[in-house]
Design a protein that fits this description.
The complex is a heterotrimer of chains A (238), B (338) and C (507).
Chain A (H helix, E strand, L loop, with lengths): L3 E10 L2 E11 L4 E5 L6 H9 L6 E6 L2 E5 L2 E2 L8 E4 L11 H11 L5 H11 L15 H13 L5 E5 L7 H18 L2 E6 L2 H7 L2 E6 L2 E6 L1 H5 L4 H8 L1
Parallel strand pairs in A: 3-9, 3-10, 7-8, 8-9
Antiparallel strand pairs in A: 1-2, 1-4, 4-5, 5-6, 10-11
Helix pairs in contact in A: 2-4, 4-5
Chain B lengths: L1 H19 L6 E6 L3 H15 L2 E6 L7 H9 L8 E4 L2 H9 L3 E2 L21 E13 L24 E4 L4 H14 L1 H13 L3 E3 L2 H9 L5 E5 H10 L3 E5 L11 E9 L5 H11 L2 H11 L27 H20 L1
Chain C lengths: L1 H22 L2 H4 L5 H34 E2 L3 H9 L6 H16 L7 H25 L4 H10 L2 H30 L2 H6 L4 H10 L4 H26 L17 E2 L4 H26 L5 H42 L4 H11 L2 H12 L11 H26 L2 H9 L4 H30 L4 H4 L7 H9 L4 H29 L9
Parallel strand pairs in C: 1-2
Helix pairs in contact in C: 1-14, 1-15, 3-6, 3-8, 5-6, 5-12, 6-8, 7-8, 8-11, 10-11, 11-14, 12-21, 13-16, 13-18, 13-20, 13-21, 14-16, 16-18, 17-18, 18-21, 20-21
The chains are: A alpha/beta (238), B alpha/beta (338), C mainly alpha (507).
Amino acid sequence: MHFIELNHISHNYQDKFVLNDFSVAISPGKTTCLIGPTGCGKTTVLRLVAGLETPSAGTITINYKIVSETGRIIVPPHQRNIGYVFQDLALWPHFTVRENIAFGLKARKEKNIGNRIGELLDLFRISDKTEKYPHQLSGGQKQMVAIARSIALQPEILLMDEPLANIDTHLKQNILEHVMQLQQRLNFTMLYVTHNHREAFQTGDIIVVMNEGKMVLKGTKDEIINSSDRFIKSFLEN
Amino acid sequence: MGKFSSFISGILVPLVFLLSSCQNKNQVVVYTSVDQVFSEPVLKDFEIKTGIRVRAVYDTEETKSTGVMNRLIAEKDNPQCDVFWSGDPVRNGVLQSKGITFPFQSVQTNLIGEAFKDPENHWIGFSARARVLIYNKNMTSSDSLPKSVLDFSNPSYRGQFTIANPLFGTTTFHLAAIFTLLGDEKAKYWMDSIKQNGVIIAASNGDVKRKVMNGEIAFGLTDTDDAFEAMKESDAVGFVFIDLEETGIGTLIMPNAVSLIKGAPHSENAKKLIDYLISQETESKLAVSCAQMPLIAGVKVPENVPSLENIRPMKIDYKSVSGKLEDIQPWLKSWLEK
Amino acid sequence: MPAILLTTLVAPLAFLITDWFTQTDKSALFAFLNRTTLLLIGKSLLMAGLSAFFATLAGGLCSFFLHKLSFKWNRFYKIALVMPLLISPYIFAVAWNGGLHLVLGNDASIFSSAGVVLVHSLVFLPLAFIIIGSALSQINATYEEAGLMLVSFKKMLVRIILPLVKPAILISFLLVMIFSLSDFSVPAYFGVQTFTTEIFTQFSALYNFPLAIGQSVLLLTICFAIMFSEAKYLSDSPFFTISLKGNTSKKYSINRGKGFLHLWFWFLLFISLVLPVVLLTIQSSAGNWLIIKKAWQLLEPTFGYSLGLAFTGTVIITLSALWIAYTARVYNSKLPNSLMMIIFVVPSTVSGISLIRFYNHPSLAFVYGSFLIILLAYLGRFGFIASRIIANGLKQIPESLMEAALLAGASPVKIFFSITIPLLIPSLLATFILSFILCWGELGVVIMVYPPGAELMNIKTFTISANAPLALTSTMTLLNLCITCLLIAMFLLTGRVLFKKYSYAFY
């Protein structure tokens, strides 16, 4: 058995199939990258795992427990112990950096919130921005806050939806390395969505190539590069 | 929602208290279409004198009394109002025909002459207004004004005069009275000829007053109270009685009219209020405040208030005028839209 | 909640229409459907359409100038242009009727219909300005810049900006058309017959209830058809938006034509604000303390009650609108919104009569005969507009902000109060202020249902105005105007202080 499993998942959005009989298994403690062209259903996979969408068919298992099945959510999102970095980061504009990170901790009535936040801020090198509002931060700092917020609750799974889409290469490199170190240290399972295969090759232990709601190939970086599949070849050339 | 509900109750609770404190038993509810400037002081005096709280709904002839009239009709099955005090008997007639009024007779109502009350006492008249001509002294002189409304069709007055919307208020009443006196055929001919003579239709009697006062037009037909108000406001305005000649149709006299509402929730207080309105005291006050002519003999009036003896009232039966009014309204509507 | 809404607001109307349908003699039921009526409807629609066209055109131009060009006095014009909203249409009618007469003499009456269109265009210009302006300020600068890289400014304007604000332009047009169609005071003053004055005449001169209600049902159907197109095609587009992300829109500096712009705005301000106010001031024989004192003595006792009612009504409207908008978004329930729309388009006299017929029952005496009936009237009249403003505010909040909170373990209630509400504060404040202005000035329904003995400031100003000296009524109107301005300034200041934390949203 694998840590996260999607079995024969179909999902439609406004009468259009986004995923069609899609199955994938994700190993624990590893980073799995989902790549594919825009609109291939990558983000939907993340939202299904998070419990933000209900599958129209199939089952989803996390940690050997069924969390969603056809037409219903069994374990609600906040009980799945998942961190999620949204594509638009979704930093609450009316909260400061500290409040953004503290929100989940307070909601779960954790202890030592002050210390935990302090540690996270240090870890992400944003200690001097504690009382700033999101709109007062630079792009890179916002990414840091978003990632810090998502791991504040020490999730077992971290979902990242193209978090580095609009960032310059140098900064992107920095943050990527930071995230990878973090993953090794905290040993969470990471699902990373991107349309950029170079980013995927750098981060992913396992890479899943998707197209039109279906899985094309799952494998290591080398397996993907050496694949003879025509779609993969053309995708990698772009 | 905790914060919000406490916030709301913080506002609502005091309001409820404020209102419930008003709900004492010793009260009377009056709906009136008489201008608030004149009616409110009279009602306040009644409150002081009797200790009965008056809860009034005011409306104005300016809005054609839509508020109170439609309210009274809509409330028919569960009346809230005790007394309806109208500026003219027409509206009371409409209510009577819809079964909303109730007859009332007392020592006070007996002071009023038969001509100024309903034969069955569904409404009783008091203090009267007359229809008069107001004119702008800068544009014409009192000598050159028409002596009768029938002269309005004279070409020399072409485009110089105004009347209020004939579908509403005292104007309708005046026209209905003319129709009753002249007969439909003659009256319609006269109406058509004043239309051809370029009559300007104002929105209301108040608007007639405004137009003449501002010098937009030389003269117009309106009520005594409007004329007196205009003279207070502007030196350029004067007024004359019309149709005074022996052979003419006579001046239209319109009394205030008060009715007891059928099923009035506070009928005892209502009767007290009606008796108060039909008294020398009230008539004398209305004579001072808006130059209304008393109908009870022996009421002292200021010098500027005309007395009934000096004018020749139009000889009409208010009930038949009310009936005529309902008959001619569709025609008046089409006349207006022509 | 839907049940409460249904019974308190929709039931009276349903009751009235059923009553009309069952009680009226069947042959008389559709007596109003004749050639004259249809011609009249055509004329009214044409006039309302023209008013809507001019208001939207002028309002659109103003919002383009003020939101897209940077020049001196920009902020002043923005505020001054909205001010006419506080002046009742009736006052415009008086001012302009006088104005027309001055220029044209007795021939002015020929231009009455044009006068009505002119006054309506002026009265509703601020509405068009607000709606289109908010849409313009929402356009992301990059869209325009991307366009400018490829084509000239003029072409970009036509091909990029105009299509982006098209929904706002349409909504402004439809709303103004409805408002113009259902206004009674202006055409009545100008002596122009429209379908609404016709209904009014049937009610108040002829007391022909069946006919009047029949005609109202027809008017209702027309308005509903107009609004339905809005609901069906445009409900997903911004209607009245308060920017969440700060001012991201692009402004262009101009070198030539500034003189023309100032001329344009001063011209508009003169005819829509300066003229009526100056006229009122002249009529009030400005500075006569005795008259001001008298006017204040008349208004003062009404102040507390009016303020309490308008405030409570506004709070109720804002909360109901929040609920309607929220359920529409979260549960995808469109029913409350459609119900509010129907009530919104009912002519005020009909609305008043339906409220009386339904609530004037011994068991409901605590509603009819108390302030509750006025609050209901307010809610019915303005709940729809309020809910649309909040719905668009909600639409501005990215779904991911709520989802992030959900993943963090917050309960739906917690999410509502700590994420949704704070982010909605700009919209809530705008809704609050607009609703307050509308409640404070509402006359049509309230005059029919206010409890005996209650004194409301605008009703008193109105009922006193008959036969009181012009100077007194003008002073009362001016006082009312000043008080409204003061109250709104106070609300805005309180809002800014209370919600300082969210100042990012007010840029």
